[in-house]
């Protein structure tokens, strides 16, 4: 009896001890799992993408080309393909498949080496995410601990989702969604069972089973997987045979070579870092969508035309240039080309300072002069050669008219009046308006009027400042990024693109009308453009060679776009300079906006703004008749008649000379006659008529004094 008890007691104790030890071991595994598992590693790196204003992707940013996808998006047949080949008891085990491990060990022993792995999908996930590739007993132990804890904390579907999203599919592609896009150019939800098997064949050895590099080996393994799916009951024999009879069906997504986007993309990344405080690592790994103001057609048009040598009058074909265009409504940058042969992360001339030349006149001089109510568009400005404490600005061609209107000074880019006007309003006043327009300079001399700066301004700054005129006097700092959203569609907070009032609507409109004249008949009249355009040219000379140009500019705007184009050499010397001036960027500007279908539009005058009339051009009054006549109630009347011009805005001043003294008797507007009632036949008075311009407060050439003739009917 005692022997019987011992016989039953010992196995029971062993069983109990084994169970106890197993329980302790499980508790230890669970306990250790909290230390081994770093849940931050479960957040997979995802590709970020940059999209244009229409939402079309123009670039992908990544350290690992991955597009995480929900398991619900993966067709069941595709999931089954991976389960069939990697872990057929995935939905049955709890992280460790004892049967598979035993079979693997048995076959390894028979073969005298390792021929079969026994890792489950969960173990592979644990290894790929948390562990290194070193083959040690401790690593395998950690793998088991992590796998068991992952099974405890996550559902099977979630584990499979993480597994499919972290797999490497070769060619720099991570995750099943990115693989579907790369190999088949379609969403993962649209994959067939045969296509799913093609992808399932790759991860075991991405180089060996690449369907691009080794299509035969991939097809062989694909067909094996389809047979396994049939054996395991996932698909019928008929479905397997039909799928095996198909070609691989690849539609490889070619990496598009789009160099015209490169400089814009670099500026987007720079803005994300500076204005959104996002590091490069965040952008490469965060799975963000960066929506920009980019107009892809305009960008490509600008890039393509800038590569044509005919637009660049350099001493060789190495002349450089940059262009930037801003949306008038939003202030967002719609195109930016940083160089004719720009390379990624290269020298971006959109943000490189250069001497702006006469493009500075409206910003530093004439806009402020009107806003301060010191001068008006048709005010007369002094046009003389004079010295300002040793600074002696000269007009191109050496011609001086004594006085010119602001309109003419701008239209024909006359230098002397610009400097004189800045002197009248004060350098500090001019600089204060530059500051409001996003241009901060350290210079304090009158040379500012002509763009003579110690450091210069960038094309982006210049375009932003001219955008103020196009935007009814409101300045908006140019921006590239409209918004950034994360993987969940949540918007990442960034800076608000605030507006600053710089000029009144009236000042901005007056400037627009004057700058239109520059394009119609002034220094920017070269080239062809259908529609309204306003703008200003700028040229700086290279003194090392007579007649050579260092910088050539055009900054201007249409009803929809504001832009700036610069041309020159990165380093100008006696063998590298421009042989032509601002007419070249003018022509390029017009051709870009025309080919980008921005032509044919007209400026619309804002409400509560007075129209700036066309300039009054006085014509000499050469003939005057003066006669005495009888009129009812007026008794003897002197009737004056002269040759009035068609512009009825002209005022005619009537002067009387009597007893050797001149007197302004009266004035009439838009008429060619004037009556003087109650005339004295014996006064001896004589009369003359002089045209007067109310825009400039200036008289023109009038008649000589004429004495009235007696009694004419």
Automatic annotation (TrEMBL):
Keywords: Carboxypeptidase, Cell membrane, Cell shape, Cell wall biogenesis/degradation, Glycosyltransferase, Hydrolase, Membrane, Multifunctional enzyme, Peptidoglycan synthesis, Protease, Transferase, Transmembrane, Transmembrane helix. Pfam families: Transgly, Transpeptidase. Gene3D superfamilies: Biosynthetic peptidoglycan transglycosylase-like (1.10.3810.10), DD-peptidase/beta-lactamase superfamily (3.40.710.10). It catalyses: Preferential cleavage: (Ac)2-L-Lys-D-Ala-|-D-Ala. Also transpeptidation of peptidyl-alanyl moieties that are N-acyl substituents of D-alanine; [GlcNAc-(1->4)-Mur2Ac(oyl-L-Ala-gamma-D-Glu-L-Lys-D-Ala-D-Ala)](n)-di-trans,octa-cis-undecaprenyl diphosphate + beta-D-GlcNAc-(1->4)-Mur2Ac(oyl-L-Ala-gamma-D-Glu-L-Lys-D-Ala-D-Ala)-di-trans,octa-cis-undecaprenyl diphosphate = [GlcNAc-(1->4)-Mur2Ac(oyl-L-Ala-gamma-D-Glu-L-Lys-D-Ala-D-Ala)](n+1)-di-trans,octa-cis-undecaprenyl diphosphate + di-trans,octa-cis-undecaprenyl diphosphate + H(+). Signal peptide: none annotated. One of its GO terms (molecular function) is peptidoglycan glycosyltransferase activity. Residues 321-593 form the Penicillin-binding protein transpeptidase domain. GO terms for cellular component: outer membrane-bounded periplasmic space. The keyword Membrane applies. The chain crosses the membrane at residues 12-37. GO terms for biological process: cell wall organization; peptidoglycan biosynthetic process; proteolysis; regulation of cell shape. It comes from the Bacteria. Residues 55-229 form the Glycosyl transferase family domain. In the N-terminal section; belongs to the glycosyltransferase 51 family. This is Penicillin-binding protein 2C required for spore germination. It comes from Bacillus amyloliquefaciens (strain ATCC 23350 / DSM 7 / BCRC 11601 / CCUG 28519 / NBRC 15535 / NRRL B-14393 / F). The lineage of its organism: Bacteria, Bacillati, Bacillota, Bacilli, Bacillales.
């Amino acid at each position: 009896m005692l022997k019987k008890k011992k016989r039953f007691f010992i196995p029971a104790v062993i069983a109990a001890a084994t169970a106890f030890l197993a329980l302790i071991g499980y508790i230890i595994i669970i306990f250790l799992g909290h230390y081994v598992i770093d849940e931050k590693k479960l957040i997979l790196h995802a590709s970020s993408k940059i999209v244009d204003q229409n939402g079309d992707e123009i670039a992908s940013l990544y350290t690992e080309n991955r597009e995480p996808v929900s398991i619900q998006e993966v067709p069941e047949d595709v999931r089954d393909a991976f389960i069939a080949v990697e872990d057929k008891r995935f939905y049955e085990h709890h992280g460790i498949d004892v049967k598979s491990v035993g079979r693997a060990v048995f076959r390894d022993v028979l073969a005298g080496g390792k021929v079969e792995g026994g890792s489950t999908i969960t173990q592979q996930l644990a290894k790929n995410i948390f562990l290194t590739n070193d083959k040690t007993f401790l690593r395998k132990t950690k793998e088991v601990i992590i796998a068991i804890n992952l099974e405890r904390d996550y559902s099977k579907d979630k584990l499979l989702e993480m597994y499919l999203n972290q797999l490497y599919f070769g060619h720099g592609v991570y995750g099943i969604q990115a693989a579907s896009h790369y190999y088949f150019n379609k969403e993962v939800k649209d994959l067939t069972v045969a296509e799913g098997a093609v992808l399932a064949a790759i991860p075991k050895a991405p180089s060996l089973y690449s369907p691009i590099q080794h299509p035969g080996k991939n097809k062989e393994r694909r067909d094996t997987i389809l047979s396994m799916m049939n054996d395991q009951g996932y698909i019928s024999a008929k479905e397997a045979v039909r799928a095996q009879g198909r070609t691989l069906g690849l539609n490889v997504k070619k990496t598009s070579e789009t160099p015209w986007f490169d400089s814009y993309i670099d500026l987007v990344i720079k803005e994300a870092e500076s204005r959104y405080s996002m590091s490069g690592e965040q952008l490469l790994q965060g799975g963000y969508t960066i929506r920009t103001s980019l107009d892809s057609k305009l960008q490509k048009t600008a890039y393509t035309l800038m590569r044509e040598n005919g637009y660049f009058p350099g001493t060789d074909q190495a002349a450089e240039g940059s262009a930037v265009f801003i949306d008038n409504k939003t202030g967002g940058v719609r195109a930016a080309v940083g160089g004719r042969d720009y390379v990624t992360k290269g020298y971006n001339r959109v943000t490189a300072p250069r001497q702006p030349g006469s493009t500075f006149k409206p910003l530093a001089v004439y806009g402020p002069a009107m806003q301060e109510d010191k001068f008006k568009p048709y005010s007369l400005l002094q046009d003389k050669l004079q010295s300002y404490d040793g600074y002696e600005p000269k007009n191109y061609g050496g011609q001086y008219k004594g006085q010119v209107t602001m309109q003419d000074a701008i239209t024909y880019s006359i230098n002397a009046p610009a400097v004189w006007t800045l002197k009248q309003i004060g350098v500090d006043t001019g600089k204060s308006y530059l500051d409001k327009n996003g241009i901060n300079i350290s210079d304090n001399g009158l040379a500012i009027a002509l763009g003579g700066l110690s450091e210069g301004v960038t094309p982006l700054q210049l375009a932003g400042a001219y955008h103020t005129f196009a935007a009814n006097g409101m300045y908006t700092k140019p921006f590239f990024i409209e918004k950034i959203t994360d993987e969940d569609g949540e918007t990442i907070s960034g800076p608000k693109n605030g507006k600053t009032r710089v000029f009144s609507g009236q000042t901005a409109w007056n400037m627009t009308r004057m700058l239109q004249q520059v394009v119609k008949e002034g220094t920017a009249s070269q080239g062809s453009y259908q529609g309204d355009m306003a703008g200003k040219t700028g040229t700086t000379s290279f003194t090392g060679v007579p007649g050579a140009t260092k910088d050539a500019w055009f900054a201007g705007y249409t009803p929809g776009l504001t832009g700036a184009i610069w041309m020159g050499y990165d380093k100008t010397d006696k063998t590298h300079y421009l042989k032509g001036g601002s007419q070249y960027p003018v022509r390029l500007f017009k051709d870009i906006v025309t080919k980008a279908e921005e032509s044919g539009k007209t400026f619309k005058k804002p409400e509560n703004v007075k129209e700036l009339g066309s300039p009054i051009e006085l014509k000499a009054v050469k003939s005057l008749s003066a006669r005495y006549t009888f009129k009812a109630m007026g008794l003897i009347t002197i009737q004056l008649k002269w040759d009035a011009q068609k512009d009825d805005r002209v005022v005619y001043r009537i002067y009387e000379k009597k007893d050797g003294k001149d007197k302004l008797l009266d004035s009439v507007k838009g008429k060619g006659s004037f009556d003087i009632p109650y005339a004295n036949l014996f006064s001896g008075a004589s009369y003359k008529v002089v045209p007067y311009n109310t825009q400039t407060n200036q008289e023109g050439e009038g008649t000589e004094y004429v004495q009235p003739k007696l009694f004419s009917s």
